[in-house]
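Researcher: We plan to redesign the surface later, but first we want a full-length starting point. Tokens attached.
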């Protein structure tokens, strides 16, 4: 009886892990190698940016929200290790808040003194071109307009791997 319970627990655990991986994969609409979608997004200052302006540049798009603990953990590194450190004319950072209003986002950014470009996707229209669940998400778009890196969540080691991809793309 005890071994039967243990077997049931193991099967349940394995099923949960497999489902989680499948769910994360199925929620990703754009993957490495895919052409980045066309979009327009509004900055917190009110101006609009079209994805057409990304052509010929390496771009990091980070989808996040003020209420998201992993997003909040990632932001200091995004500021220090990417935005403040990679000073290339052909590199852009776009942190796109998913599903929040401009005032909420502005308060969070001002309080934390982040200086990288912030955009608001209140209705998640841009996010839904890339994925349909889970944040933070990072997408690195190469100069050719194709996705060079895509990640879900925040793992420090993975974050530093992404920085390597950005630096390699900038050399091309």
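Model: Full-length starting sequence:
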């Amino acid at each position: 009886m005890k071994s039967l319970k243990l077997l049931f627990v193991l099967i349940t655990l394995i099923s949960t892990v497999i489902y989680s991986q499948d769910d994360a994969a199925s929620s990703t609409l754009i993957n490495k190698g895919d052409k980045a979608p066309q979009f327009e997004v509004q900055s917190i200052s009110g101006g609009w940016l079209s994805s057409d302006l990304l052509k010929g540049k390496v771009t990091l798009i980070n989808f996040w929200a003020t209420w998201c603990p992993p997003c909040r953990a990632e932001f200091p590194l995004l500021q220090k290790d990417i935005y403040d450190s990679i000073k290339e004319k052909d590199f852009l950072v776009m942190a796109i808040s998913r599903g929040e209003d401009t005032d909420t986002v502005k308060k969070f950014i001002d309080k934390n003194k982040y200086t990288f470009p912030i955009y608001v996707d209140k209705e998640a229209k841009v996010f839904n071109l890339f994925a349909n669940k889970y944040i933070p998400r990072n997408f690195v778009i190469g100069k050719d307009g194709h996705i060079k890196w895509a990640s879900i969540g925040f793992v420090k080691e993975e974050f530093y791997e992404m920085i390597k991809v950005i630096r390699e793309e900038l050399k091309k």
